[in-house]
Amino acid sequence: MGDSNKGDTLRLPNGDALTGDEVKSPFLIGVAGGTASGKSTVCKKIMEQLGQAEMDHTQRQVVAISQDSFYRELTAAEKAKAQKGLFNFDHPDAFNEELMYDTLQDILKGHKVKIPGYDYRTNSLDFENMLVIYPADVVLFEGILVFYFPKIRDLFHMKLFVDTDSDTRLARRVPRDINERGRDLDAVLTQYMTFVKPAFEEFCSPTKKFADVIIPRGADNTVAIDLIVQHIRDFLNNRSRPGSTGNMALYMNLDLNASGIMGPDHFGNGTYNAIRRFSTLCKELNMQGNFFFDTNKNLPHH
Ligand SMILES: Nc1ncnc2c1ncn2[C@@H]1O[C@H](COP(=O)(O)OP(=O)(O)O)[C@@H](O)[C@H]1O
Ligand SMILES: Nc1ccn([C@@H]2O[C@H](COP(=O)(O)O)[C@@H](O)[C@H]2O)c(=O)n1
């Protein structure tokens, strides 16, 4: 970070100030996309390529969290409905928005947090298997509706949308739900037609416009994943550089389409060069159809 930033107030993407010990705030990446689009697989690949997957949880620089941990607890009547496949888990009301927001805020403040796992067989949060999220440099938060709630959307430094066609998603969801989530074929198809598909069209798909980067074909798009991995590497290197304040928000919260207005005086030269490299690569990949970069920046947010 250049001297020009000394004494600046460090801020989260939503404008909240960070002070003192809180400056080791992680770079928060939102990963949205329809069911079975490959969100978890993309996150897993990113973690693997960064050598994080095999690392002890307490030591990881990059961690991934699922929005499923923020489903709200169901009433007895809702549980009964869910067991018959009659509860809509794809509607925004199925999530605990406040808890999700507070937890992400805690993470951005560099705090250790505990979140429950999720058990699809019982449609309930799994408090027996709490996940401890240790402070990290980069946090990936993935889920179908991570860009739906404006307050939460504004917390992300970077927003990725995994864009896989709906036939492929359904073809992947069916075996996954049968083999891993304890469902039968009829129930999967009925739930898909009754809730999943209409909710995708109403709530998830429209959030694609908020993405900074759209990844066609999900985890198959190795070019896009390599680029994102390289970008995160640049971050991690920049953060560990002597003299860096460690504040990712100042590094990342920028409009690359307008990056021509920023000169090396704004950042250290290493950071500036990393941004330029990223920007150039994005333009090239965009032209090759591997990546859509910031396509809808000017659309209204609602
Ligand atoms: N590129 C891919 N090729 C083949 N199968 C895939 C691919 N990406 C994901 N899958 C499979 O599809 C299913 C859904 O993928 P997942 O990453 O869990 O999606 P999401 O997190 O978006 O629901 C999983 O069984 C996963 O193994
Ligand atoms: N008890 C539950 C909770 C969620 N679902 C479905 O999971 C989908 C979201 O997870 P992905 O990994 O597919 O993104 C969502 O479409 C819900 O329908 C469920 O079936 N049961």
Automatic annotation (TrEMBL):
<keyword id="KW-0067">ATP-binding</keyword>
<dbReference type="GO" id="GO:0004849">
    <property type="term" value="F:uridine kinase activity"/>
</dbReference>
<comment type="pathway">
    <text>Pyrimidine metabolism; UMP biosynthesis via salvage pathway; UMP from uridine: step 1/1.</text>
</comment>
<dbReference type="GO" id="GO:0044211">
    <property type="term" value="P:CTP salvage"/>
</dbReference>
<comment type="pathway">
    <text>Pyrimidine metabolism; CTP biosynthesis via salvage pathway; CTP from cytidine: step 1/3.</text>
</comment>
<dbReference type="GO" id="GO:0005524">
    <property type="term" value="F:ATP binding"/>
</dbReference>
<comment type="similarity">
    <text>Belongs to the uridine kinase family.</text>
</comment>
<protein>
    <recommendedName>
        <fullName>uridine/cytidine kinase</fullName>
        <ecNumber>2.7.1.48</ecNumber>
    </recommendedName>
</protein>
<keyword id="KW-0418">Kinase</keyword>
<feature type="domain" description="Phosphoribulokinase/uridine kinase">
    <location>
        <begin position="28"/>
        <end position="223"/>
    </location>
</feature>
<keyword id="KW-0547">Nucleotide-binding</keyword>
<keyword id="KW-0808">Transferase</keyword>
<dbReference type="InterPro" id="IPR006083">
    <property type="entry name" value="PRK/URK"/>
</dbReference>
<dbReference type="Pfam" id="PF00485">
    <property type="entry name" value="PRK"/>
</dbReference>
<dbReference type="InterPro" id="IPR000764">
    <property type="entry name" value="Uridine_kinase-like"/>
</dbReference>
<dbReference type="GO" id="GO:0044206">
    <property type="term" value="P:UMP salvage"/>
</dbReference>
<dbReference type="InterPro" id="IPR027417">
    <property type="entry name" value="P-loop_NTPase"/>
</dbReference>
